[in-house]
Structure formats: structure tokens, C-alpha cells
Amino acid sequence: MDHFIEDFINYLGVERGLADNTLLAYRRDLQEYIAYLKKQGLEDCLQATRDHISNFMFHRKQKGLSANSISRELAAIKMFHRFLVRERLSKEDPTHLVDTPKLWKRVPDVMSSNEMEAMIDASKGKTAQSIRDNAVLELLYATGMRVSELVNLKVENVNLEVGYVRCIGKGKKERIVPMGKSAKEAVEKYCNGIRKKQVKGQFIPFLFLSRLGKKISRQSIWKIVKAYAKKAKVKKTIKPHTLRHTFATHLLEHGADLRSVQEMLGHSDISTTQIYTHVDKERLKTIHHQFHPRG
Fold first, then answer.
1. Over its length of 295 residues, how does the chain's per-residue pLDDT go in tens digits?
2. Which residue is catalytic, options 132, 244, 245, 250?
3. Which regions of the chain carry the CATH code 1.10.150?
């Protein structure tokens, strides 16, 4: 059964171009599934039935897995069996009638415009670190980039003259995102000053560098975000991804259409973007109070 998993992972990596972390997650989920089938006495995953898969999901629930985790594992199993049918290794797809667990879509935490401005203001300064950190925060908020996209962003993918960045997202998909005036000025200041001194004529492709002149790490971005959120006295729990949520929410609140936001975020499915269409509760109350006859 293990060789089927290897064939499937190779297919996802070569033909679908999925990222290494995604491939590791698929491998891990399928190994759990295969291990369960073996415990049930199956010698081949081609013998799996709908009942086996339903029982596996129930087994995982008993183990304490969340609905989200079970849903993710089931998605991997469904793709795996569809692959086996496509390759004519199996005649039937036992997952065809297996329902995905119903999930609540959790509204992401976001910052208000004032909180975001306070955080960016807190990063302003004349030191090398503050100039770099200000550029990092401005760019994260201006583009909604993922942290992985930011740390791997190369100088050649930033067009300061026109004002856009070319992001390489999940599955190596490329997208163009405008960066706006404030982010453009912050990045320009960082590039022409601090970064130029750091590279000293060397060729270092990555835009954001550590104090040692190496590519900045994900952990460093996390620390930057946490530090300036604390300095700005933002009481919410702020993570780098919160800036991505905030970017999308603020765009939609100010009238951007959902398709444009989807494209800028790099979502393949618009339903993923729709989670950002939530409305601030206090704003909703204000509108109700202002316009309802008995408000």
C-alpha cells in the first residue's frame, strides 16, 4: 500500500506542483489512513470500502481530532482514491458517497484601521532595524502576502517604479499585487539605505535580510509583528497572518469587489475569500441605530 502513496505524492509534486509542506501533510494523513486499514486486516487499500473510510473518520474523532483535521484527512483520502481510479489501479472510488464533516467557518481576527496605523507608526525610526521592520509591516499590510511569500520575495520581483510585487504563492502560482504609496516609499527607503550597505556589492537575491545579511527567517517576521503590536499597545493576539486577514477585510469594508481580493490573496477558490465579508459588529449596530425607525 505504501508504494501507492509514493506514486500519489510524486503525482502531486510533479504534475500538480504542490509545495513541499503540503506534500508532507498529505503523506502524513495517508500514512495514518493506511495504518488504520492494516489494523482492520486489509492487505491492500484497493479493498477499502465506504464503511472502512467512515469508520476511520469516527476512529479519528475518538482520538480527539477536530472536525477541521478530520475534514483535511478526508480530502487527502478522496484525492488519493480518485488518483487510483484515474491511473486505472482501482475500479471504484469508495469515497464517492462519503460526506465531509460540516465545518463552522471561523471569522479571522483582524485589526481596526487605527490599530494597524498605530502598529506601523510604532515601527518608524532612524535605526537600521526600524527602517527594515517598517518596510516589512508596510508591505505585509499593503499586499496581504503570506509570511512564506515575504521571506522568499526577491528584489527582481519588486517593481518600485510602477508599485507592485510579484508573489510566488502556494503551488508555485504567481500573482501580481499592487503595493501602494506608503509601502513603496518604505521599501525604497530600506533598499536605498540599509540593504545597500548590507550587501556591499554582493549578489543577494532576497529583498529582506537579517542583521547578518542573510535571508530573513519566518521566526524573525513573527518576532517583528509581535514586538510592534506590543509597542503599539494592541491588546489582541497578533500574528503575521493577522495582517493578511486585516488587508483583506479592510479592502472589502471600503468597497473592493470579492473577485479582486481573491486575486490579490492568491486564493484558488472564492469561498475561501468569502470569510472576509464579515461586518464589524459595532459598525452594524451604528447603522441599525442610525437608519432603523425604532433604533
1. 678 899 999 988 888 877 788 899 999 999 999 999 999 999 888 889 989 998 998 899 898 888 778 888 998 999 999 999 999 888 888 888 777 665 555 556 789 999 999 999 999 999 999 999 999 999 999 999 999 999 999 999 999 999 999 998 877 788 999 998 999 999 999 999 999 999 988 899 999 999 999 999 999 999 999 999 999 999 888 999 999 999 998 998 888 888 898 999 988 877 777 777 654 454 556 666 777 677 5
2. 244
3. 2-86
Which of 72, 170, 218, 226 is an active site residue? 170
On whether the pTM is more than 0.90, the answer is no
| Distance set, CA 255 to CA 103, 250, 286 (Å) | 28, 9, 18
The answer to whether residue 241 is catalytic is yes
276 is catalytic: yes
* Class of the CATH domain delimited by 113-284: mainly alpha
Q: Which of 60, 146, 184, 195 is catalytic?
A: 146
Q: Is 170 a catalytic residue?
A: yes
175 as an active site residue: the answer is: no
CATH among 1.10.150, 1.10.10, 1.10.890, 3.30.420 for 2-86: 1.10.150
- Phi, psi (5° rounding) for residue 9? -65, -40
Cα atoms in the Cβ-side hemisphere of radius 13 Å centred on 126: 0
